[in-house]
Write a structure and sequence with these properties.
The protein has one domain. 20% of the residues lie in helices and 17% in strands. The protein contains two helices and three strands; from the N terminus they run αββαβ. The relative contact order is 0.22.
């Protein structure tokens, strides 16, 4: 994820593996959340995500 973004991850950011396999690090399989709370919310209520919670979703980078 860091290589793809061209920067180090922030200490609060959380990388999520879309297929659930943690060593499957193809960029298309990764999402980057601003923090653990946003990541947890994604698992609990995917429809309840707010704009700005996701930094990267496998194909699109979202500005902070």
């Amino acid at each position: 994820m860091e290589k793809h973004l061209g920067r180090y991850l922030l200490p609060t950011e959380v990388v999520h593996h879309i297929n659930g396999i943690k060593d499957s690090n193809h960029i298309e399989n990764l999402m980057l959340f601003v923090n653990e709370g946003a990541h947890r919310k994604f698992h609990i209520i995917q429809k309840g995500m707010q704009e700005g919670d996701i930094v990267f979703d496998g194909s699109k980078y979202h500005s902070l």
